[in-house]
C-alpha cells in the first residue's frame, strides 16, 4: 500500500513539474514552520519508506573532519569524545567509507558502548555511513564486498543506514547498484537505504524504480536554499526526508568571521580547512563577502536575542525547513567540542521576526539553482 501511494504521488509530481518547469523555479521560503520545541520528540525523528524505518537524532555528528585536513586525530581521544557526545544525547554519527578512519573509529566507539554502557543506551546509537564507489561495473559481488567492508570496519552485523553516492549520471549503473543494495537490505545487512548528493530528477527515477529510499543527504544552508526550490516538494509527496550538511558552512556562519575582511591578506581568520575553503567558494557564488557580513550581523542580532550562538541559529533555521529531518554539525574529535551549543538547538524557537529577517538576507543573494544547478550538481560540473 505504501509503495502505491508513493507511485501515485510521483505521478502527481511529474505532471505538475512538466507543466511548470518552463516558469520560475525559485520558490518563496515562507513555508518555514516555527513550532514549539519541547521534550524528546524534538531531538529525534524517524525516516521511513514502507516497512523500513530508522529513528535518528535531528542533529547529526558529522565525521568528514576525521579524513585529514583539520588536524591530527588521536584515536583514543576521538573515541572518548564520541562517548561524550553520545552521553549528551547526540548519538547519531555520520561517516563514509572514504572519510579516512571514520568507520574504524565508530567500530571502536560502539564496542566501548557495548562494554561500558547499559543495553538501552546502545538502542539510541546510530551509525550512518556512505558508500562512494568508483565508476566501475556494479556487479552483485562488488556491491556486496564493499558493504561487507563497511560492516566489518564499523563492527556491526547490519548498517543502520547506507547512503549511496554516484559521480556520473551518464552512467546508469547507479540503478544496478541500488538494486543490489536493496537485495542486501532484504538480507538484513542494511536497515535503511538512502542517497547522498542526488538531484531531484534522479531521485524521482530511483523512486519510480521501486527503490525504498528514506532520505537524501544534500548541502543546505541559509546561503544555499536549493533543496527547497525543487527537491523538497518531491520529498513531501513521497515521504523521503532530507539530511543536510554544510549548514554552518564549515564554521563561516559563526562569530569568528563576523566583522572580518578576507579581502585583506592576513586580516581575518585563515581559511585553513577543506570545509572553510569549500564554503567560501559557495559564499562567493551566492553574493560575496560583503553580503555575507550582512547575514552574519543578522544572525548575531538573533543569537543575542535568544542567548545562543550564531551557528545554533543557522542550524535551527534549516531544521525548520520543509522535508528536513536532520542537519549535520561537523565534529573535530579530540580537537574541539561544541556539545553545549549543539544541544541548545533543540530548545531554540525562532519567531516570525527572526525567520523573516533571515529570509530577507538569503533572498538578496543569487539563485544558486541557476548558478550551480540542482542538489549535488557542484560535484558533477565539468
Task: Compose a concise summary of this entry.
The protein has 382 residues and is α/β, with parallel strands linked by helices. It has 15 helices and ten strands.
Poorly predicted regions are 18-38
Please give the largest β-sheet.
Answer: 8 strands, parallel, barrel
Percentage of residues in strands: 5-15%
Neighbour order of strands in the largest sheet: 3-4-5-6-7-8-9-10
Distance between the termini: 42 Å
The number of strands is 10
Structural class: alpha/beta
Spell out the helices and strands N to C: HEEEHEHHEHEHEHEHHEHHHEHHH
Specify the overall morphology.
globular
Oligomer: single chain
| Average pLDDT metric | 90
Rg, Å, rounded: 20 Å
Report the helical percentage.
40-55%
How many helices? The count is 15
Can you give a write-up of this model?
The chain is α/β, with parallel strands linked by helices and 382 residues long. Helix content is 42%, strand content 15%. The chain has helices at residues 2-20, 75-87, 102-116, 119-122, 140-154, 173-186, 200-208, 226-229, 231-238, 274-286, 289-306, 310-319, 339-343, 352-362, 368-371, and strands at residues 44-49, 52-57, 59-62, 92-94, 126-131, 159-164, 190-196, 213-219, 241-245, 324-330. The strands form 2 sheets. An 8-stranded parallel beta barrel has the order 3-4-5-6-7-8-9-10, surrounded by 5 helices. Helix 1 packs antiparallel against helix 9, helix 11 crosses helix 12 (310-319) and helix 11 packs antiparallel against helix 14 (352-362).
Amino acid at each position: 500500500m505504501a509503495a502505491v501511494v508513493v507511485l501515485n504521488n510521483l505521478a502527481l509530481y511529474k505532471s505538475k513539474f512538466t507543466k511548470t518547469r518552463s516558469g520560475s523555479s525559485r520558490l518563496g521560503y515562507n513555508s518555514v514552520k516555527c513550532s514549539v520545541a519541547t521534550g524528546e520528540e524534538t531531538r529525534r525523528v524517524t525516516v521511513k519508506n514502507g516497512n523500513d524505518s530508522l529513528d535518528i537524532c535531528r542533529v547529526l555528528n558529522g565525521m568528514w573532519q576525521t579524513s585529514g585536513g583539520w588536524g591530527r586525530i588521536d584515536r583514543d581521544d576521538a573515541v572518548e569524545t564520541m562517548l561524550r557526545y553520545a552521553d549528551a544525547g547526540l548519538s547519531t554519527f555520520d561517516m563514509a567509507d572514504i572519510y579516512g578512519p571514520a568507520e574504524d573509529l565508530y567500530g571502536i566507539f560502539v564496542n566501548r558502548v557495548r562494554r561500558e554502557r547499559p543495553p538501552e543506551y546502545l538502542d539510541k546509537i546510530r551509525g550512518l555511513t556512505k558508500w562512494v564507489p568508483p565508476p566501475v561495473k556494479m556487479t552483485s559481488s562488488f556491491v556486496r564486498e564493499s558493504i561487507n567492508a563497511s560492516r566489518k570496519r564499523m563492527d556491526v552485523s547490519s548498517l543502520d543506514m547506507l547512503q549511496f553516492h554516484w559521480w556520473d549520471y551518464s552512467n546508469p549503473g547507479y540503478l544496478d547498484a541500488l538494486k543490489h543494495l536493496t537485495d542486501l537490505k532484504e538480507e538484513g545487512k542494511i536497515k535503511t537505504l538512502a542517497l547522498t548528493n542526488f538531484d531531484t530528477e534522479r531521485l524521482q527515477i530511483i523512486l519510480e524504480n521501486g527503490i525504498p529510499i528514506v532520505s537524501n543527504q544534500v548541502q543546505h544552508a541559509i546561503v544555499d536554499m536549493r533543496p527547497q526550490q525543487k527537491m523538497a516538494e518531491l520529498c513531501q509527496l513521497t515521504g523521503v526526508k532530507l539530511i543536510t550538511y554544510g549548514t554552518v558552512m564549515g564554521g563561516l556562519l559563526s562569530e569568528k568571521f563576523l566583522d572580518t575582511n578576507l579581502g585583506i591578506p592576513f586580516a581575518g581568520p585563515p581559511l585553513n580547512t577543506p570545509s572553510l575553503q569549500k564554503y567560501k567558494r559557495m559564499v562567493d557564488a551566492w553574493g560575496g563577502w560583503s553580503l555575507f557580513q550582512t547575514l552574519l550581523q543578522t544572525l548575531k542580532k538573533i543569537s543575542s536575542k535568544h542567548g545562543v550562538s550564531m551557528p545554533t541559529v543557522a542550524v535551527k533555521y534549516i531544521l525548520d525547513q520543509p522535508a528536513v529531518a536532520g542537519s549535520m554539525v561537523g565534529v573535530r574529535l579530540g580537537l574541539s567540542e561544541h556539545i553545549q551549543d549543539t544541544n541548545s538547538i533543540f530548545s531554540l524557537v525562532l519567531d516570525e521576526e527572526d525567520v523573516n529577517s533571515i529570509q530577507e538576507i538569503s533572498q538578496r543573494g543569487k539563485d544558486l539553482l541557476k548558478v550551480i544547478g540542482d542538489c549535488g550538481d557542484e560535484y558533477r560540473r565539468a
